[in-house]
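Backbone-to-sequence.
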């Protein structure tokens, strides 16, 4: 069904751009965000069914291969050296431990391992080590994803050659909100890394964080940036801020849960073929809200008891939730 074709008389329909070269306007995305919730979810679910089995959820497990001590000042992040969150910085994990984690993730039903490092940007010698880890993860039979910060062209190429399937690098928020959250690198740095990942031939995993005190227009601005990437990312993590004591965003007001669902729905409508990932923040989310996110078009979750440094629902609990909802996951 064409998003623009759904008849609705009490709101001006927000139309999808007619040609790929056309760009989503922030105002159109905001108009979608403002639809009556049942109408918005209906549109998102209709789009979802054109491209996916609506009962299938992707399971990806996160692994922090290098924790803490990061020189960046991202205001949400417990791993920044700028904030005292009580987190101890660690050394990079070795290959044996990473292989064991990959095997455990596979045995519990994940299809992808996403390795995260608290770096502003890796050094070339880090890339050599990560390449070994990627080969190990692939050998276990999982898809491999990394999130290591900013990359150079040759680093992106080396990761691709090692077999990396996805690179995660988030835009995090709208350009106009960005400076309130991070000062140590700018929006264009992020766009440049995303272009290098594309150029190297890897799939892009790129999304953001909702609930950092941004306005609805700024949420629309983030989705517009993502949807207007050409091509848009294959994988779009929508994180709800995990508030960590000691970070500048620890006391920000909670976002209305329905606003979070709306953001998921609009990501689905504007990026129809992407995996939309209900990412960080599930531990503080009621299961009914998570179910609503799946109905709104989310079809991927982080699976495993830990995100990078903070908690995630227990794997067993997630399996039970999927079962109660009649949802399934693909086997690796
Ligand atoms: N250091 C690398 C970087 O920033 O690109 C990779 C790791 S970083 C932790 C990956 C992403 O995790 C961030 O871009 C952000 O979107 C997300 N993230 C970090 N802390 C978070 C929090 N407290 N709540 C929600 N998402 C968070
Ligand atoms: C993403 O968008 N979310 C993940 C993953 N990509 C790397 C990270 C969430 C981190 C939440 C805070 C923590 O556990 O440190
Ligand atoms: Fe460092 Fe990434 Fe955390 Fe920013 S989000 S402080 S770059 S680990």
């Amino acid at each position: 069904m064409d998003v623009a074709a759904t008849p609705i008389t009490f709101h001006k329909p927000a139309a999808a751009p007619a040609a790929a070269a056309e760009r989503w306007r922030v105002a159109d995305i905001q108009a979608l965000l403002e639809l009556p919730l049942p109408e918005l979810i209906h549109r998102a679910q209709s789009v979802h069914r054109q491209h996916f089995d609506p009962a299938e959820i992707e399971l990806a497990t996160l692994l922090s291969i290098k924790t803490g001590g990061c020189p960046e000042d991202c205001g949400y992040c417990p791993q920044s050296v700028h904030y005292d969150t009580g987190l101890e910085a660690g050394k990079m994990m070795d290959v044996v431990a990473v292989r064991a984690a990959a095997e455990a993730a596979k045995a519990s039903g994940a299809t992808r391992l996403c390795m995260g490092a608290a770096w502003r940007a890796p050094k070339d010698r880090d890339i050599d080590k990560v390449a070994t880890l990627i080969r190990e993860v692939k050998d276990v039979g999982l898809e491999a994803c990394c999130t290591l910060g900013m990359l150079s062209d040759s680093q992106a190429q080396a990761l691709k050659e090692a077999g990396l399937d996805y690179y995660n690098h988030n835009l995090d928020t709208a350009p106009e909100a960005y400076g309130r959250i991070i000062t140590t690198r700018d929006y264009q740095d992020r766009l440049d890394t995303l272009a290098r990942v594309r150029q190297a031939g890897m799939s892009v995993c790129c999304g953001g964080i909702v609930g950092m005190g941004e306005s609805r227009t700024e949420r629309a601005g983030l989705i517009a940036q993502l949807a207007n990437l050409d091509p848009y990312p294959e994988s779009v993590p929508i994180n709800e801020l995990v508030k960590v004591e000691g970070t500048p965003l620890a006391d920000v007001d909670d976002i209305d849960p329905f606003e979070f669902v709306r953001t998921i729905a609009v990501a689905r409508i504007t990026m129809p073929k992407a995996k939309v990932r209900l990412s960080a923040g599930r531990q503080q989310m009621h299961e009914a809200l998570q179910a609503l996110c799946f109905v709104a078009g989310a079809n991927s979750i982080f699976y495993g008891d830990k995100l990078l440094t903070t908690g995630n629902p227990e794997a067993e609990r997630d399996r039970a939730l999927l079962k109660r909802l009649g949802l399934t996951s693909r086997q690796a």
